[in-house]
UniProtKB/TrEMBL annotation:
PROSITE patterns: ABC_TRANSPORTER_1 (PS00211), ABC_TRANSPORTER_2 (PS50893). GO terms for molecular function: ATP binding; ATP hydrolysis activity. The keyword Transport applies. SUPFAM superfamilies: P-loop containing nucleoside triphosphate hydrolases. Residues 5-230 form the ABC transporter domain. This is Sodium ABC transporter ATP-binding protein. InterPro entries: AAA+_ATPase (IPR003593), ABC_transporter-like_ATP-bd (IPR003439), ABC_transporter-like_CS (IPR017871), ABC_Transporter_VariousFunc (IPR051782), P-loop_NTPase (IPR027417). Keywords: ATP-binding, Nucleotide-binding, Transport. Pfam families: ABC_tran. Transmembrane segments: none annotated. The keyword rRNA-binding does not apply.
Length: 288
C-alpha cells in the first residue's frame, strides 16, 4: 500500500511542549482522522507536514520525497483547508483565483468554476463577507482545482453549525470516490470521523498513541464496567485507565481478550467511542 505521508522518529521541541519521536504513516486513497485534545500537537504536526515548521530530529517525507530537494513538487500535490480565512479579506474569490492559479502547473479553470457553482460561492464579494463555512468551501475549491492528491484539513468543522458540518462530511465522502485522493483530517470533534474516517491517528501530549484502521480501533478498545471488588494491582494492568465511583468502576481497555480472560462474565464490556478513548488516555497512561 502506497504511503503518502511518512514521519520517521520526528521530534520538535518548544519551550513548554514537544512532539516526541513520532512515527506516522498516511496511506494513499483513504481518510485519516487525526485526533487529540487542543494542545496535543495536532497543528504542530500539520505544520511539519507542510514544511511550515522543520523538525529538530527525524525525517518527514511526502510522496516519498523530502522537502529539502523537492519542495515545489510536493506543494503542487497538496491542498490545505484551514478552519478560518487564509485569504486577503478585502479581495474577492475571482481576484484570489487570478493570484493563485499561476502558481500551479495543473490548475484547472473549468474545475474551479464547477466547484464555485457546486458550493454556491459568490465570485465578486469580498472574502470578509463570507461565513466561516463559505471560507472553508473557498479553500476546498482552490485545493481541488489544482488536482491536489493530498488534502490536509486542520479542524475544518470547528465552529460550524451542525447542518453545514453534515454537508461538508457528505462532500468529503463524495470526493473520496477518486482512489488517487487522500485526506488528512485533524479534529477534536470525534463524531465527525465516525462518518468518514478509514484510519485514526491519536496524539496525546505530543506523542502518537496509535495509528489504526477504524475497524481495529473498534476491535481493540472497549469500556469495561464492574464492581470495585474486582480491582486489584494485577487486574488493573488490563486497563489504560480506571475511573472509580461508589457504585463501581468504569475503565478503558486496549485488550478486550485479556479482559475476558481475567474477568469472564463478571464485567460489562461496551464499545468505546473515540471520545471515550481520548478521555481515558488523558486521565491515565498507556499500558504496552
Amino acid at each position: 500500500m502506497e504511503i503518502v505521508v511518512e514521519f520517521k522518529n520526528v521530534t520538535k521541541k518548544f519551550k513548554d511542549f514537544s512532539v516526541k519521536n513520532m512515527d506516522l504513516q498516511v496511506k494513499k486513497g483513504f481518510v485519516t482522522g487525526f485526533i487529540g485534545a487542543n494542545g496535543a500537537g495536532k497543528s504542530t504536526t500539520i505544520k511539519m507536514m507542510m514544511n511550515l515548521l522543520k523538525p529538530d530530529a527525524g525525517e518527514v517525507k511526502l510522496f516519498g520525497l523530502e522537502y529539502a530537494a523537492h519542495e515545489k513538487e510536493i506543494k503542487e500535490r497538496i491542498g490545505f483547508v484551514y478552519d478560518g480565512n487564509v485569504f486577503f479579506e478585502g479581495m474577492n474569490l475571482k481576484d484570489i483565483k487570478h493570484i493563485i492559479a499561476p502558481a500551479y502547473k495543473h490548475w484547472d479553470d473549468t474545475l474551479f468554476y464547477q466547484y464555485v457553482e457546486q458550493f454556491e460561492l459568490p465570485l465578486n464579494k469580498a472574502m470578509k463577507t463570507f461565513s466561516k463555512g463559505m471560507q472553508m468551501k473557498a479553500s476546498l475549491a482552490i485545493a481541488l482545482s489544482h488536482h491536489a492528491e493530498l488534502i490536509i484539513m486542520d479542524e475544518p468543522t470547528a465552529g460550524l453549525d451542525p447542518i453545514f458540518r453534515r454537508e461538508l462530511l457528505v462532500l468529503l465522502q463524495e470526493l473520496m470516490v477518486d482512489d488517487n485522493r487522500t485526506i488528512f483530517f485533524s479534529t477534536h470533534i470525534t463524531t465527525d470521523l465516525d462518518r468518514i474516517a478509514d484510519y485514526i491517528a491519536f496524539i496525546q501530549r505530543g506523542e502518537l498513541v496509535f495509528n489504526q484502521s477504524i475497524h481495529d480501533v473498534a476491535e481493540n478498545y472497549a469500556l469495561v464496567k464492574g464492581g470495585m471488588e474486582l480491582l486489584d494491582r494485577d487486574t488493573e494492568k488490563a486497563f489504560v485507565h480506571v475511573h472509580r465511583a461508589p457504585t463501581g468502576f468504569e475503565a478503558l481497555t486496549d485488550n478486550i481478550k485479556a479482559v475476558k480472560n481475567i474477568f469472564g462474565d463478571s464485567v460489562v464490556i461496551e464499545q468505546a467511542s473515540l471520545e471515550d478513548i481520548m478521555y481515558y488516555f488523558k486521565g491515565g497512561i498507556q499500558h504496552v
